Amino acid sequence: MSTELPVPSTESLVVSYCAMAQHFKDLVAWRKAMDLVNPVYDATDRFPRREMYSLTDQIRRAAVSIPSNIAEGQAHYSNREFLHFLRHSRGSLAELETQLLIAQRRNYLSESDTARLLKQADELTRILSGLINSLREREGSSNP
Questions:
Q1: How high does pLDDT run on average in the chain?
Q2: C-alpha span between 98 and 56 (Å, rounded)
Q3: 76-80 contacts, C-beta under 8 A, 24 or more apart
Q4: Structural domain boundaries of the chain?
């Protein structure tokens, strides 16, 4: 089941987070990250069998790592720790984008499939960056 939502502005992310989500499932970033996992799995299902324990596995692990880190970070209830995990999510997202491009170069992914997945990844990058920036600003304003 997809939870397709419009991309919120950075300002609305700040307002949404400032109300402190009660659960990671309330976070737009987590929902968008979850929306990326199934298409990644579907795309890698078509990879050659010889890639099962290499590129296929790496791509899937990176995709799963993104919402997992968002969830783990939010569960700590500390902005500082949440920022740490959000940065890991953004790193996993960059890793995923790189691996998708490698898969395209190996002709495992079509240009259209790659473009579709990278579009979702770009949207998530903007959401994560906005959330990271807003939390950083909150951290700065709470320190004298």
A1: 87
A2: 13
A3: 79/135, 79/138, 79/139, 79/142, 80/139
A4: 10-139
